[in-house]
Specification:
This protein is globular. By secondary structure, it is an alpha+beta fold. Helix 3 (93-103) packs across helix 4. Strands 1, 2, 3, 4, 5, 6 and 7 form a 7-stranded antiparallel β-sheet that branches. It is built from 4 helices and 7 strands.
């Protein structure tokens, strides 16, 4: 069953690791990689990546990308969203801290941010405006069990 707008936005706002997909050019399948993201219902989605990364180069060339998040419990549910890039800016320390705190235990955030800031090179925030959504709640695994 498709999710309502409110359900899909709330689900996307939860800290799932997303699968990012972006066109990789002629003769190639899309680049698909796991990524952290930040989202608040009704807003733009943002990710961080290294300025010189293949991911950033492909997103810049395509001008858009998609994210898909899913879960298996308590029900099998997914949300896929795609849209245009609306802004790319240098990542700030505050943004790196915000996205890290979304995924890491509080006691690990400072060490990760320090490591990332010093070792991952120049990073950018890429903002995507959600334009097309696909979502579903497929029920529980028990719904598919043979009788």
């Amino acid at each position: 069953m498709a999710l309502t707008r409110e359900q899909r936005e709330q689900f996307l706002a939860e800290p799932h690791v997303a699968a990012l997909a972006v066109d990789a050019g002629a003769g190639r399948a899309p680049l698909t990689v796991p990524i952290w993201y930040q989202y608040e219902p009704g807003g733009d989605i943002w990710i961080t990546t290294e300025l010189d990364s293949r991911k950033n180069q492909l997103i810049s060339a395509a001008g858009r990308f998609s994210l898909m998040v899913d879960r298996l419990e308590p029900t099998i549910r997914y949300v896929s969203v795609e849209g245009p890039v609306v802004d790319t800016t240098p990542t700030t320390l505050e943004q790196l801290r915000e996205i890290s705190a979304r995924y890491l235990p509080a006691e690990q955030v400072d060490a990760y941010v320090d490591f990332s800031w010093k070792n991952h090179g120049e990073q950018v925030v890429i903002r995507m405006r959600p334009e097309r959504w696909v979502s579903s709640d497929l029920g529980t695994a028990d719904d598919y069990a043979p009788e």
